[in-house]
C-alpha cells in the first residue's frame, strides 16, 4: 500500500494522511535517520513529534537534508508537534511553538496539539517539561480555555494550519470546544485492541473531530523506557502482540499481529529496522478487531 494516497479531510478542510509515523522514544540521530528516511521512502507523509520528545532537532536536520536533495517537498508532508505541559500559560504558548519550529527548521507545522490537559509549573529551564518536588508532580492553575485561545492565535499567525488536543477526555474536549473560535480538528489518544476507546471515538465523531490513535501496537517497549527515563519500576503492561486471539486472526489472514493492530488504529512508532512491506501493507484483510480508522 502506498500510504501517501490515503487521507481524511479535517473539519477545516485540510487533508491529513491516515497513516502516521510516531517518533516518541527516538533520541539518537542514526536511529531517527533510519526510521524517518525509510518511512518517507515507502510512502509515509504524516510525521508526529513533540517538544517533550527532545528529538525535533534530529527530525529538522534530516528533513532539511531531504528537502535540499529534492527527495521530498515540505508541502507533501504533514508534520505534527505538541505544546508541552510547562508551556500552557497563554503567554508561553507562542514561545514554545516557536522553539519547536526552530528545532524542526520549519516555518509552520500542519497540526499543533495541546499535549496533556495537565499544566506543569514552569521552571527556568525550558526542557524541564514537568517539575517534581518531593516526588510529587507540581501542577499549575491554568484554565485550558485560555491556553486554547493562545493556540488559536498560532493559526492566525500562520505558525500552524490546524490545532487539536491530545490525551483529553470528553468533558475537557467539550469545555474547550464550547468556548473555541477555532474548533479542535484532531484528538490524539492512546488506543489499541486492549483499550479501544469506543465511547470517546463516538463523541469525537459527533463534534467532527478526527480521532487519531497512538500506540496501536500497545507500546511494547514502554516499561523499559519508563524505567530508564522516569525511574518507574515494575510497570506491568500487557503484551498485545503476543495475544492469542490476535495471533489466530493474523494466521487466518496471513498478516502479522502488528499489521492487524495497524489495521485497527494507525499512529505507529517504529524505532528499529523493520520490514517495509509489512509496515505499509494494510490491504486485503478484515477481522473482528478491525473497528475504526479515524472516523470509522
TrEMBL record:
InterPro entries: AKR, Aldo/ket_reductase_CS, NAD(P)_OxRdtase_dom_sf, NADP_OxRdtase_dom
PANTHER family on file: ALDO/KETO REDUCTASE
Highest rank taxon of the organism: Eukaryota
GO molecular function, one term: oxidoreductase activity
Annotated ranges, domain NADP-dependent oxidoreductase: 19-259
Pfam families: Aldo_ket_red
Annotated protein name in UniProt: Aldo-keto reductase family 1 member A1
Active site: 53
Binding site residues for substrate: 115
Origin species: Trichonephila inaurata madagascariensis
Site (Lowers pKa of active site Tyr): 82
Segment forming the signal sequence: none
